[in-house]
Design goal:
Blueprint lengths: L7 E5 L11 E8 L2 H14 L3 E4 L5 E3 L4 E8 L4 E5 L5 E6 L4 H10 L24 E2 L2 E2 L4 E8 L4 E7 L18 E10 L11 H7 L9 H14 L22 E2 L1 H10 L8 E3 L5 E3 L1 H7 L13 E3 L7 E3 L5 H19 L8 E3 L4
Parallel strand pairs: 2-5, 3-5, 4-18
Antiparallel strand pairs: 1-2, 6-7, 7-12, 8-9, 10-11, 10-12, 13-15, 14-15, 16-17
The structure holds flavin-adenine dinucleotide.
Length: about 350
């Protein structure tokens, strides 16, 4: 059944994004079933209109001028589980389902694997788009396949294997492309009640387990939510530190020689965090680089209406009444400050719409 809420005109993106920034969506269609998503996207494409696919707006920076054409809000619902003999399950989720509800529901069903991805805002369809990850787990490890609407072919493609989506650190072949709309995702989840092995030192410390050990998955979820709250990384309308798009910059992945040069420049400060990355490269901590380039938590942008979060130097926040341009000015100051201090380029993690850094 095709279900739309009424089409609305000139809806401010400030009402649609977690940053609470951005000008109007010329036309907003809220599509509440998979068929409605396909119909709305197809109709916009037939009209030759610009199209933006919107989930929960938690990874979007939208220009103050707004977005022309049609914005399709993916609000489809539905989930089902096919059990395996070992107690695990194949979880199929519609793209419009609230992600944290998916995580909580899987745990309630006795399925593990998603506990470290608790508390991440947004909807299920966007999860493969940037290969969502947190506390040592990425969705690439659990994603089996997706159903897509291929806008060029004008056709639904079912069971597109995860291996074809080019999932990598906070990116995929879907990110920033807009030529395919995720309709459903399928996840292979092991049986609970124990979590998958804990790989993140801070989380292992809070849980009191050695790295690589398992813990009750429900306890892991609670610990992750508490850690995230302490960093302003769980949405709370009353807390301006959470009026963000999460981490604004990805952790830079650089050749080992570059990492050595950065460590040399940082010598005498504090030991520089460095983590192994694929192909002998090194992942640096963007938060560390930002704070050691002189941008402390709470650092204000021009006018003080945007600022680094008071609890996490990697989140750029709207303190109320800010503008996207003000946020971008602050982001440029941070990016340029890190480059001048360490010679490392920071790249934005959210998708920028109608604006650039
Ligand atoms: C407080 C906070 C904490 C966060 N923590 C994390 C974290 O720990 N780890 C992490 O990885 N991310 C994190 N994020 C970022 C964000 O929550 C995730 O990237 C999330 O998956 C985005 O989902 P969304 O539905 O809000 O997507 P949106 O912001 O609505 O869209 C993001 C992009 O995906 C596209 N898109 C959305 N839905 C679809 C679809 N169905 N098909 C095709 N394209 C689509 C959009 O066009 C856009 O380009 C955080 C954000 C906030 C605000």
């Amino acid at each position: 059944m095709t279900t739309y809420a009424p089409i609305r005109s000139r809806v401010p993106f400030a009402e649609l994004t977690t940053l609470r920034l951005g000008g109007p969506a010329q036309r907003l269609v809220r599509a509440e079933s998979t068929e409605a998503v396909v119909d709305a996207v197809r109709a916009a494409d037939l009209q030759g209109e610009p199209l933006l696919v919107l989930g929960g707006g938690s990874n979007l920076v939208v220009a103050d001028a707004g977005v022309p054409g049609t914005t399709v809000e993916v609000a489809s619902t539905g989930r089902s589980v096919r059990r395996a003999d070992d107690g695990g399950g194949l979880l199929t989720v519609a793209a419009g389902e609230d992600w944290d509800g998916v995580v909580a529901g899987a745990l309630d069903d006795g399925l593990a694997g998603l506990e470290c991805l608790s508390g991440i805002p947004g909807r299920a369809g966007a999860v493969p788009v940037q290969n969502v990850g947190a506390y040592g787990v990425e969705i690439a490890e659990l994603l089996v396949d997706v159903d897509l609407y291929d806008r060029r072919a004008g056709a639904v493609q079912e069971h597109v294997p995860a291996a074809e989506l080019r999932l990598a650190y906070r990116t995929s072949g879907l990110k920033g492309r807009d030529d395919a709309v995720v309709l459903r995702i399928r996840l292979a989840l092991p049986a609970g009640p124990l979590s998958t092995p804990i790989r993140y030192a801070e989380l292992a410390g809070v849980l009191g387990v050695p790295l690589g050990e398992r813990a009750p998955a429900a306890e892991v979820r609670a610990a992750v939510l508490a850690l995230r709250r302490s960093k302003g990384m769980v949405l709370d309308p009353a807390d301006h530190d959470t009026w963000s798009a999460g981490s604004f910059f990805t952790n830079p992945v650089v050749p080992a020689a570059t990492a050595d040069a950065v460590a040399l420049r940082a010598a005498g400060v504090t030991p520089m965090p460095r983590y192994p990355a694929p192909e002998g490269q090194v992942k640096l901590s963007a938060a560390w680089l930002i704070s050691h380039a002189g941008f402390e938590r709470g650092h204000p942008g021009p006018g003080g209406r945007v600022a680094l979060s008071g609890r996490h130097s990697l989140a750029l926040t709207n303190r109320g009444g800010g503008s996207t341009e003000e946020l971008l000015v602050l982001a440029r100051q941070v990016r340029d400050g890190v480059f001048d201090t360490f010679g490392v380029s920071l790249a934005p993690e959210p998708v920028l719409v109608g604006c650039r850094l």
